[in-house]
Design goal:
By secondary structure, this protein is of the alpha/beta class. Helix content is about 35%, strand content about 20%. Helix 9 packs across helix 15 and helix 11 packs parallel to helix 12. Catalyzes the formation of 4-diphosphocytidyl-2-C-methyl-D-erythritol from CTP and 2-C-methyl-D-erythritol 4-phosphate (MEP).
């Protein structure tokens, strides 16, 4: 005889107990081995924008106020490497770094055991999605107050086709109803535990994501979908590495400015900045701006102090002067550069040597000699490139080549110096009104050019940021009114006192 569960007409309907999670845990799934990238290390340890991919990912959840705890599930044999990253970065929310399972589903089970039995929110996120936004994390957590399972997805821009075993189309679903899944996927702990408990009894159980497990084994459970983002890519194939790196560059171009002068003064008071090429253009304006905000600035150039950036003895003397005066060096900036136009085959040896020495040997020399000082303060080296680094252009081949070299130098040094806490970045301004540019191209409509002051402000924002390994594009906003460009004279020798500017 079956039990009668019906109630009388006066019985009150059952109301679910309100959800009261003890905490919100982010589980970072880092079990990939990098096979498709052809790497000898797990792809999550590959460095992009100066840091391992997993460090970028962890930083997002570490700084998200909605997240209370982070657990990392790492590929077998690499737990120690991730623990070192966590310790060095000072990620306080990371409570465990443990080995995952052989499959995604086994890894989720390990994670559930690590989380414990308390009711909590759990967000599962791919370690190789380093560009997840705080907005996505926040909306996932907020949705769990109403739903017990949440997915992240974006509309499909491509038509999706279904094929048979012979690779012939069998169906073309309506694109408007399709989404491309991303992570994180978020759950109330009881829901995902129950789904996996039921799945354990299915000998044919297999799923590629956790929402799929809920959908199959708890079919009556609504799964809320929130909007992901095109930037939240998964680094899986070689091309993804390049895409992610460029997306980090674009994000770096939006370095936030502090809200008022007091913020800059708090950041810069007591700091020492050394600017090579600080007599004209961007270098001059950056030095003046930093001084106004309380920094102690030492500007060196060929014309004002007789300092040649390509000469180690000159660079060492300049750094020694700044250090002996203040006892520290926090920022070293190299804006020195020369731009000589002409066909390479027709350029004389002296001119070629000057371009190579000032534009490339100079920054290399400064970098080598500045490292011991910057290591003491965990400071930053800032270099400058130009839009011509992306494609060599006729009549200034050496200039373009040296600017491309500085981009590679920036990325390489950011990697090399990460272990000692020294950051390296490179500013890429569009066409800028500097004496060097005027000498090379003559007078140009001022509304088509960035002002040196605008580039200096962007540079200052980079210097007080935590960025490293970035190429930061500085552009004039669309529709911006013409900027006042103060007239400046250029040294007659066209030497290293001029600042680099994009030459096209």
């Amino acid at each position: 005889m079956t039990q009668d569960h019906t109630t009388g007409p006066d019985a009150a309907p059952e109301t679910p107990a309100p959800w009261r999670p003890s905490r919100t845990v982010a589980v970072i799934l880092a079990g990939g081995t990098g096979t498709r990238l052809g790497l000898g290390i797990p792809k999550q340890l590959l460095k992009i924008a100066g840091k391992p991919i997993i460090e970028h990912t962890l930083a997002v959840f570490e700084s998200a106020p909605e997240i209370d705890e982070i657990i990392v599930l790492m590929a077998t044999g690499h737990v120690g490497e991730v623990q070192q990253i966590v310790d060095k970065a000072g990620f306080r929310k990371v409570s465990k770094v443990i080995e995952g399972g052989e499959t995604r589903n086994e890894t989720t089970r390990v994670a559930l055991d690590a989380v414990g039995e308390e009711d909590c929110n759990i967000l599962f996120h791919d370690a190789v999605r380093p560009l997840v936004s705080h907005r996505i994390v926040r909306e996932c957590v907020n949705a769990l107050w109403t739903y017990s399972a949440v997915d992240v997805a974006i509309p499909s821009a491509d038509t999706i086709i279904k094929v048979d075993g012979e690779d012939c189309i069998t169906d073309i679903p309506v694109r408007s109803s399709l989404r491309r899944g991303q992570t994180p996927q978020a759950f109330r702990s009881g829901t995902i535990r129950e789904a996996y408990r039921l799945a354990a009894g299915d000998p044919n159980f297999a799923a590629t994501d956790d929402c799929g497990v809920v959908l199959r084994y708890l079919p009556g459970t609504p799964i809320k979908v929130i909007d992901g983002s095109d930037e939240n890519i998964k680094v899986t194939h070689p091309v993804d590495v390049h895409l992610a790196d460029k997306l980090f560059q674009l994000a770096a171009a939006r370095v936030p400015r502090l809200v008022d002068h007091r913020g800059y003064r708090e950041e810069l008071t007591g700091r020492t900045m050394v600017v090579f090429g600080g007599s004209y253009g961007i270098g001059h304006d950056l030095a003046e701006l930093a001084r106004r905000h309380g920094a102690q600035v030492f500007a060196f150039s060929r014309s004002s102090t007789g300092t040649h950036v390509e000469r180690p003895e000159d660079v060492e003397a300049a750094l020694t002067t700044a250090f002996e005066a203040t006892g520290r060096i926090d920022h070293v900036v190299v804006t020195a550069g020369v731009l000589e136009r002409g066909n390479l085959a027709e350029m004389d040896e002296e001119t070629m040597d000057r371009v190579l020495q000032v534009n490339f040997v100079g920054p290399v020399t400064v970098a080598r000699l500045a490292l011991p000082y910057l290591e003491q303060t965990k400071g930053q080296l800032l270099l400058y490139t130009s839009s011509s680094y992306t494609r060599g252009r006729a009549r200034y081949a050496l200039y373009s080549a040296t600017k491309a070299a500085l981009v590679n130098l920036t990325q390489a040094l950011a990697d090399e110096w990460a272990d000692v806490g020294v950051r390296v970045n490179c500013v890429n301004p569009e066409r800028t009104a500097t004496p060097m540019r005027t000498r090379a191209f003559g007078e140009e409509p001022e509304h088509t050019l960035l002002s040196a002051e605008a580039v200096a402000q962007a540079s200052l924002d980079v210097l007080i940021s935590e960025l490293t390994g970035q190429v930061i594009d500085v552009r004039r906003p669309q529709g911006e009114p013409p900027q006042a460009v103060p007239a400046q004279t250029v040294p007659s020798d066209g030497g290293a006192t001029a600042t680099p500017a994009t030459a096209g």
